Structure formats: structure tokens, C-alpha cells
Amino acid sequence: MSSISENSIETQLINNQQETQQNKVLTNYIQFFSRLFIIKRVVKEDDLIQSIQTHFNTLSISSIIRELNQSFQALHMEIRRSIDQNTGDYVYVLITTSLDEINQIACIFDQNDLKKVNELIELLTNNNYKIQRNSLDDEYDSVCNILIELKYLNEISGILTFGPCYLVSEEASELELPRCEICNLPGTMGTFCPNTTCQTFYHLLCLKRLGRENHICSHCKTHLDYN
Ligand SMILES: [Zn+2]
Ligand SMILES: [Zn+2]
């Protein structure tokens, strides 16, 4: 009898030890990736996969994002998958989940600049989601730079477009942007299937990634010519 009970205590100890080790790994990766997202806000999907494989190779990207989001929930923040429409990179972005995200990041803007932020977003929305930066008054310069740095806007060759953080924000979802058939993410830089009864949306760079021979609408099989 005594040997059995000793044995079970030993087993219990080993189990406890294993559990503690598992918990350590658990806290470690939550800490690791929380820090990563708080510092960077935007993390390329490829980099994230690489980092998981290097440090925590037993974990899947979806389970990590799910667990991180459980921790971020209390802060009204969430990691969402998005796309950088200028590079075609899929990214994960940390955004606040309140209805007016822009006003939340805007704790860094004063009232006057906040007005400019909203004007800029409106301008973009009313101009088919892109504007020439040099068409803007100089007074927009500083808010523009901040929004670009925060990945709410992209600037490529002097053209401003919506960046990955804005695309998946609550404001953008109110715009009801079309979703790309390939990546299922919202978009402003893309092409619609030319078949007028179909009109399925595709990001330009998602299409490019597919290769020209596959540029056929998955709904109606119409050829997609985007040039
Ligand atoms: Zn896409
Ligand atoms: Zn189609």
C-alpha cells in the first residue's frame, strides 16, 4: 500500500512539474508576442510564422492570436489580420475595438489635428480611396506623417491610400468596403470582375500572387484583366 501511495505522490509531483513548465511556456509566449504587438502594432504574417517556428514551434498561429486576443480584450484591443495593399503582405495589426478607433488613437492629437484627421479620411473616402499627397495643404502634413507611421495610411510615390490598420478598423467596416475573393480582407486597391452581374472584388496584389494564368473569376469564370 505504502509503495503505491508513494508512487502516486511521485507521479503527482512529476505531473505538477510538467504543468508548471507548460504554464511557463504559456506565459512566455503570451508575454513575448504581446510585447511584439505593443511595440510594433503591425507584424507581417511571414515574420510571425517565422518567429513562432523559431521560438515556440509546437504552437499554431491561430491559437496564439486567439490567446493574445483573450488578454487584449480587457484593454479593448484586438489583433486582426489585414493586408498592406501596396506590398501585398498579409499582416496582423493591433487595433482598439471601440467604435471610433481614430478618435482613440487620437489621444495623441489635439482637437484641431483630430479635425484634420477626420477631414483626411473623408477626403480619401470621397476620392476613390486615394489622393495625391501634394494636393493637400501643408497644414495636413504633421497628421499625415503620424497616420502613415501608425499604418493608418500608406504613402507610395506621393499617393496616399488606406493602410492596413485603417482597413480593419471599426470606421472602415462602416464603409462596407468590398472583400477580396482571395484573402477575404476588405480592400480599396483592386479590381472588380468585369462581368456586370458578378462584380466580385480582388486585391490587385492578391491576383498578382496567383500568377497570370489563374486570373479567372472563381465565381463566373470570366477572365480578369486588371492592367
Ligand atoms: Zn486579397
Ligand atoms: Zn466574376
Automatic annotation (TrEMBL):
It comes from the Eukaryota. Gene3D superfamilies: 3.90.1150.220. Keywords: DNA damage, DNA recombination, DNA repair, Metal-binding, Nucleus, Transferase, Ubl conjugation pathway, Zinc, Zinc-finger. GO terms for molecular function: ubiquitin protein ligase activity; zinc ion binding. One of its GO terms (cellular component) is nucleus. Transmembrane segments: none annotated. It is an enzyme of class 2 (transferase). Its EC number is 2.3.2.27. It catalyses: S-ubiquitinyl-[E2 ubiquitin-conjugating enzyme]-L-cysteine + [acceptor protein]-L-lysine = [E2 ubiquitin-conjugating enzyme]-L-cysteine + N(6)-ubiquitinyl-[acceptor protein]-L-lysine. The keyword Transferase applies. Its main location: nucleus. The keyword tRNA-binding does not apply. One of its GO terms (biological process) is double-strand break repair via homologous recombination. It is found in: Nucleus. Belongs to the NSE1 family. Component of the Smc5-Smc6 complex. PANTHER family: NON-SMC ELEMENT 1-RELATED, NON-STRUCTURAL MAINTENANCE OF CHROMOSOMES ELEMENT 1 HOMOLOG. This is Non-structural maintenance of chromosomes element 1 homolog. It comes from Entamoeba dispar (strain ATCC PRA-260 / SAW760). The lineage of its organism: Eukaryota, Amoebozoa, Evosea, Archamoebae, Mastigamoebida.
